[in-house]
Amino acid sequence: PVIIATENLSRGEVIEAHHLRLIMKPKHFVRAQYLQNQELLIGSRSKRNIRSGYLVALNQICMVCKGDNVTIFAIIRGLKIKTSGLALEDGTLGEQVKVKNAKSGKVLNARVDGVESVQVII
Question: If one looks up domain 2-62 in CATH, what number appears?
């Protein structure tokens, strides 16, 4: 299963549910990193133009885009703390990005775990 665009998406456009469709493709036709869950892509933005009928690859979107307000989840010995911050880099699921904590002003390295959401393990 792969996700394709149902219509042309312009660079910077926010991806919504009606823009996506799940289809089956033979594995040897798929070379890019992709997601199989449409819900994870909803709310992310396209980094480049994506044509209708084509695969939506992870390198074509940003779940956390530079300048976005993000939710930072810090995990300390099983305790999960939530705060807000500002993304200083673009990133997609699993990538490390720099974020600035809104309260302390500290710059942190965090891993993208969803749309406008990052995680720091302390």
Answer: 3.90.1210.10
